[in-house]
Design goal:
The structure holds 2 protein chains of 2 kinds.
Chain A: E1 13-23, H1 28-38, E2 42-50, E3 56-66, H2 67-79, E4 83-88, E5 95-105, H3 111-120, E6 124-128, E7 132-139, H4 141-152, E8 156-161, E9 165-167
Antiparallel strand pairs in A: 1-3, 1-4, 2-3, 5-7, 5-8, 5-9, 6-7
Chain B: E1 4-5, H1 6-16, E2 21-24, H2 31-38, E3 43-46, H3 50-64, E4 68-72, H4 76-79, H5 82-90, E5 95-101, H6 117-121, E6 127-130, H7 137-149, E7 155-161, H8 162-165, E8 168-169, H9 190-202, E9 206-210, H10 212-217, H11 220-230, E10 234-236, E11 251-254, H12 261-269, E12 272-276, H13 282-285, E13 296-301, E14 315-318, H14 321-331, H15 338-350, H16 363-374, E15 379-382, H17 386-394, E16 403-404, H18 415-425, E17 431-436, H19 437-443, H20 447-452, E18 458-463, H21 468-477, H22 493-499, E19 503-507, H23 513-522, E20 528-533
Parallel strand pairs in B: 2-3, 2-4, 4-5, 5-7, 6-7, 9-10, 9-12, 10-11, 12-13, 13-14, 15-16, 15-17, 17-18, 18-20, 19-20
Antiparallel strand pairs in B: 1-8
Classes of the chains: A alpha+beta, B alpha/beta.
Chain lengths: ~180, ~575
């Protein structure tokens, strides 16, 4: 599960956001990841959390691969006995959030620039130390992507992202 | 409530499920369950290898429609079942495989004979369990039987740590199953059924494609009514044999890579093709883009994941094959298929299955003779390769469950143990294992199992001293550069049989075929092995090279002038 989400040159290769409700049991994750791996999909991010019913877990998976294979992947996921349901949420009007931590390298003379930037970009400042500043940012993945581009100019030492979490708008239940 | 050992509860539930036989092989971690079997009416069939046990359970399941049950020990005992589990999974065979396992406190510590068996099984099962809490034993056992035989059947594996099997529990035999993610489709959507019925009525060159799903669901009567009422010709897949009688005038036999020429011509020219429980696999479809491009395609299946997996459909109906076809029968109006039937009959007359008579003994001759003497009443199992395809062509199957072969997985070594399972299921019936000399040697250790139980199986070894199908490919597509196909060192199969105390017969000449087949069929005092020494270099035709279109079907062996070599064919793009 590397995060190399790059293109294989095919135009139908794209990222998909998949939402699942599954039994909260050992071994479920491996069954699900086997469905992706066998069909050439790379999992870019994966979030698993308990749902409001402790018998079930919710999973949000971002994976990239051939568009035409996705239908088969969803069907095979739904076929797993431990999967209650799985659906593709790509491109839907749905609330999605992600959290990222950025560790920026900065010499003392650059620090005020970085702090100003953090303020302008609505990031939380988690820690300031002699040579590094750690910023936290939440938002949709696109927002985090653009922040990443800006921060790159300041020298990113380290970065980690939680992966997407989804929730349907209004009264609709997400999965 | 009285407490019981979990191992006893496992055996109780097996018995409650109506299971008569368990096929298995013991080992340390499984001893508690084997111990519980001592006092149970469920009979244990001790095999000589775990692979044999799984194929026997598979043969039993395919011959009855009921789950086959396997019991093995941990580690290598369990991993030896994986090939057989794959075989069952690929062909949707109901099966429950119970594996002993190291104690729960030793899991993950590389203890003796410990393997992550449920983990290894994930890609090849319908579902699997590792029991971590003894109180879950009855629920999991019942869930396993339920899963294995409902919806699209398949193998379910249960890993039982030794301390779990040895624990005392208060069994609840009627508790609720916990399968919230498991749905079994039954009736088709009326709108889809209506659409299919319309399409069938307006088609002028319709074709029914009958697959294993139709056999499993018991759709034979419904399919026959549909075909006869609508006057639609029927082709069947390798695993679909036995749903629609192959001796029926509307049957064109098997389609696909080694199907009959007339079946394949009908596939190529039809204007509608309706699959009843067939999954359009690569052996049938060949080249996806050029498969029936102008035909309306309808697919009935109980597994929605099969819809549009390879070929794009015009109409899909999710449901049980029998119920869906019955619903179609209730509303469908007959179309005009007279011209079409004339055409298919013309093809049947013009391109019959044929083989060269005279000269060395041919496998086809022997199989044709078996057909003549059994007339479809025998249960036939096969191995994988040339003999399998010839058997599929020449042994016409008229009855459900009478044809047992490894289709999807193509597992060599399957045929003989599967015949043992089928004979246990039908002790009075004639059971014939058609095997090759290569595949038979993979599981021939089960000769002991057959002889101990005095099973009157007829083991027909089509012996060409080659791995014939691979040799055929190397001859046709690889300049006859034979590589790894020579079975030199084959044993004397008749003497081998005799060493086990089994009757052995050898057929070498065409003139003896009729008499010796009759001798074998009449012998009922235990197993009988018939070593048939056939021509070494015979090829199976017709043939559509894998990944090729139906236009590229090779109907018969290319004629080659003396002294010339056959033209080399292009290497197929598809696999095997």
């Amino acid at each position: 599960m590397s995060t190399a989400a790059g293109s294989n040159g095919s135009s139908s290769y794209r990222k998909h956001t998949i939402s699942l409700m599954v039994n909260n049991k050992p071994g479920v994750l491996i069954r699900i990841s086997l469905v992706f791996a066998r069909r050439g999909y790379n999992i870019d991010s994966l979030v698993v959390s308990p749902s409001k019913d402790p018998n079930f877990s919710v999973m949000n998976i971002v994976a990239s691969g051939e568009e035409k294979t996705l239908d088969q992947i969803l069907k095979q996921l739904n076929k797993l006995v431990d999967v209650i349901h799985a659906s593709d949420r790509t491109g839907e009007d749905i609330i999605q959030r992600e959290l990222a931590l950025f560790k920026l390298h900065n010499e003392p003379e650059m620090r005020s620039d970085v702090l100003q930037l953090a303020h302008a970009m609505d990031c939380d400042i988690v820690e300031v130390s002699e040579h590094a500043t750690i910023l936290q940012m939440t938002g949709d993945s696109e927002r985090l992507d653009s922040a990443l581009k800006v921060f790159e100019q300041y020298g990113i030492e380290e970065m980690i992202r939680t992966g997407k979490v989804l929730m349907a708008r209004g009264q609709e239940i997400t999965t | 409530m009285t407490k019981k050992f979990a191992a006893e509860v496992i055996v109780d539930i097996i018995q409650q499920q109506g299971v008569e036989y368990i096929f298995g092989y013991p080992g340390g971690a499984a001893i508690p369950i084997f111990d519980a079997l001592v006092d149970s009416p469920v009979k244990l069939i001790l095999t000589r290898h775990e692979q044999g046990a799984v194929h026997m359970a598979d043969g039993f399941a395919r011959a009855t429609g009921k789950p086959g049950v396997v019991l093995v020990t941990s580690g290598p005992g369990a991993t030896n079942t994986i090939t057989g589990i794959l075989t069952a999974q690929m062909d949707s065979v109901p099966m429950v495989v119970i594996c002993g396992q190291q104690t729960t406190w030793n899991l993950g510590l590389d203890a003796f004979q410990e393997a992550d068996v449920s983990g290894i099984s994930f890609p090849v099962v319908k579902h699997s369990y590792l029991i971590k809490n003894a109180q879950d034993v009855p629920r999991i056992m019942r869930e396993a039987f339920h899963l294995s035989q409902t919806g699209r059947p398949g193998p379910v594996l249960i890993d039982v740590p030794k301390d779990i099997a040895s624990a005392m529990i208060e069994p609840d035999y009627d508790g609720e199953l916990h399968l919230p993610g498991y749905k079994v489709p039954t009736d088709g959507d009326p709108a889809d059924i209506e659409q299919a019925a319309q399409m069938l009525s307006t088609a002028r060159r319709p074709l029914l494609l009958v697959g294993h799903g139709a056999v499993i669901s018991g759709a034979e009567k419904a399919v026959t009514i549909l075909a006869e009422k609508m006057q639609i010709p029927v082709v069947n897949t390798l695993l679909g044999k036995g749903c629609f009688p192959e001796t029926h005038p509307l049957s064109l036999g098997m389609l696909g890579m080694h199907g009959t020429a007339y079946a394949n011509m009908a596939v190529k020219d039809c204007d509608l093709i309706m699959s009843i429980g067939s999954r359009w696999d690569d052996r049938i479809v060949g080249k996806i883009d050029s498969f029936c491009p102008n035909a309306v395609k309808i697919h009935i299946d109980i597994d929605p994941a099969e819809f549009n997996k390879t070929v794009q459909m015009d109409c899909t109906i999710l449901g049980d094959a029998r119920r869906v076809v019955e619903s179609i029968n209730a509303i469908v109006k007959r179309g005009d298929t007279k011209e079409w039937l004339k055409q298919t009959e013309k093809w049947r007359r013009q391109y019959p299955l044929k083989y060269k008579k005279g000269g060395k003994l041919k496998a086809e001759h022997v199989l044709e003779e078996i057909q003549n003497q059994t007339m479809g009443r025998a249960f036939v199992t096969t191995d994988v390769g040339q003999h399998q395809m010839w058997a599929a062509q020449y042994l016409l199957t008229d009855h459900r469950f009478h044809w047992i072969t490894s289709g999807g997985a193509g597992t060599m070594g399957f045929g003989f143990p599967a015949a043992i399972g089928a004979q246990f299921a039908h002790p009075e019936a004639t059971v014939i294992a058609i095997v090759g000399d290569g595949g038979f040697q993979m599981t021939q250790a089960e000769l002991s199992t057959a002889v101990i139980n005095r099973l009157p199986i007829k083991i027909v070894v089509i012996n060409n001293k080659y791995l014939g199908m691979v040799r055929q490919w190397q001859a046709l597509f690889y300049d006859n550069r034979l590589s790894g196909v020579d079975m030199e060192g084959n044993p004397n199969f008749v003497k081998l049989a005799e060493a086990y105390g089994i009757k052995g017969i050898r057929i070498k000449r065409s003139a003896d075929v009729k008499r010796l087949i009759q001798t074998a069929l009449e012998y009922n005092d235990g197993p009988c092995l018939i070593d048939v020494e056939v021509e070494k270099e015979d090829n199976v035709y017709p043939m559509i090279p894998s990944g090729a279109s139906y236009e590229q079907m090779i109907i018969e062996a290319p004629k080659v002038k003396p002294g010339m070599t056959a033209p080399k064919l292009e290497k197929p793009v598809g696999s095997t």
